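Deviation from plan, reported transparently: uridine-diphosphate-N-acetylglucosamine complex.
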Amino acid sequence: MDKLAIIGGRPLYGELPISGAKNSALKVMVATLLSDQPLVLDNVPMLADIKQLTALLEQHGASIEREGARLTLHTPEVVSTTAPYELVRKMRASFNVLGPLLARMGEAKVSLPGGCAIGARPVDLHLKALEAMGAKIELEEGYVIASAKGGLKGAEVTFPFISVGATEHAMLAATLAKGQTVLKNAAREPEIIDLAECLNAMGAKVEDAGTSTIVITGVDRLDGGTHAVVPDRIEAGSYALAVGATGGELLLSHARLELLGAAKDSFEQAGIHMVQEEGGIRVTKDFDRPKPVNVVTQAYPGFPTDLQAQFMAVMAIADGVSTMKETIFENRYMHAPELARMGCDIHIDGQLATVRGKAVLKGAPVMATDLRASMSLIIAGLVAEGQTLVSRLYHLDRGFEKLDQKLHGVGALVERVKEDD
Ligand code: UD1
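Because the crystal trials were delayed, the predicted structure below was used instead.
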């Protein structure tokens, strides 16, 4: 197990490439189960989560080949409709094989998912959507056993609250259902639009993705297709926040500013400026300390929960007091006690975090607790005095491609060391 050693205090300068979005790539890869023709995906990041899903899809009968950032997936035949616990437990996105298996094969047995330890994260909305489409669902010993003998049927599904995972899952399943499916109160994340574009490239009829009502007209079969995964807005936002902490100037190549939604305004208020250029987003920061900004995490286009931990690291050096309210997950402040080890002054009360900015943070040994939390510790480490040693780096390897190389390339003093070194 690796650690990341960081010597803080260096501003970041240069060009840093932004990869394809993990959260999008995982969902579009699953679409291979809907067709017996090859699906070619470009801009797929090389990450532990992608490898994990590759193993699961291969187990279902997919052959998957990688050439650089291009992944070619082909599932001429589904050889197993069971997704075992060992392959599903590590990552929540794996659960989304259920709908496609059900749509193509009329049956599926899928283990209940795992993922980051950031709250209860149930899948009831996923199951209700599939039931509305005619699936029979039973739960047995940690597995969902689903069947739809005559195939899935189009249905109107109104989500009681916004769920990205359930919206994507219902979209995947509805592409092959008989008739029309209408998803109301659907999530509007850029990753939803990306999935719709991929499915449509395969011959599906998905309309109005990106709005809160998505209409899917089922087709008899899906073809192959080619699709490029959208750039990762969370990775881009994270490196922009790193500049917010250390200063300097970065060109986040390939990144698209419009994908950042409300986060852009919060960054601007903090003194982090982002401008869209032809090659990507240019990030600069005001000379003085960041200004305190209050944020509330919300579904897109609100401030993303996946940037909350990283924003907290920047607020920890802000010139004043800021608050963060986490409304998506109930246990997503695990980075706060670790940041406190570096001198951050953070008080947590339920959903609310109050951060009193300090002029100086001190490097310390800290432990990553989940994927985005790891990045928050790294941002704090980049601005802290002395050395920070971030352990449990495997969390980070799930979702940030070549992080140490990318940071090294823009002047950060970072080094990956073996856990027992
Ligand atoms: C969520 C985030 C997404 C982020 C991802 C990884 C939102 C709306 N979603 O997506 O941006 O990239 O985590 O960190 O910000 N829920 C249920 N029942 C369900 C499904 C979800 O109660 O069947 C709850 C979840 O526990 C959570 C909320 O709904 O409190 C939103 O969850 P959802 O959007 O589905 O989670 P992810 O798809 O993991």
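The CA atoms of residues 49 and 398 lie 5 Å apart. We consider this an acceptable substitute for the interim report.
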